[in-house]
Amino acid sequence: MEVNINTERLMIQALTIIDAGFMLQLMNTPTWIQHIGNRQVYDNTAASNYIVNNIINSYYVNGFGLYLVKTKQAKTSIGICGIVKREGLPIPDLGFAMLPNQTGKGYATEASKAIVTHAKDHLGLRELAGITKLDNTASISVLEKVGMSFQKMMRLPQDSTEFALYTMALHKEA
Predict the structure, then answer these.
(1) Which end of the chain is more exposed for a tag (fewer CB within 10 A), N or C?
(2) What average pLDDT does range 35-48 have in this prediction?
(3) Closest-CA residue to 29 (of 41, 18, 13)
């Protein structure tokens, strides 16, 4: 899947198995495990399998997925951002995660705004959700900055975690 989204400071592109080392690093950060969960990805093979089975598969099944976020200047991988179709959510979900040393720089917000525009203008989505734990104030801030509003607390199937559900309507300008 060809996705090349550019912002002022970032390049957003499809993930490939070449990115397994980066995903291994990202998925084992304390903030990923705390806020997203332990996905049992402990080596490059497991990271490659996760990319193929979850991310690349979503590109083909849903027409969207999570994308690699790199800085334009250094061309360094710093996180992921994209759209996920989750069981238990009737609308696609904006997802993002940055390496801990890249937080607080506005990258998640910049990437998320670009993904919201992509969802509206290129994917034709009419609505977008965002879910997060209530203690994840950084993610709540990003969701609000891209225009989402809190709707309710909810649980996903087979998950006892309570999430805050945010949503936004996406309307093309007439």
Answers:
(1) C
(2) 94
(3) 41
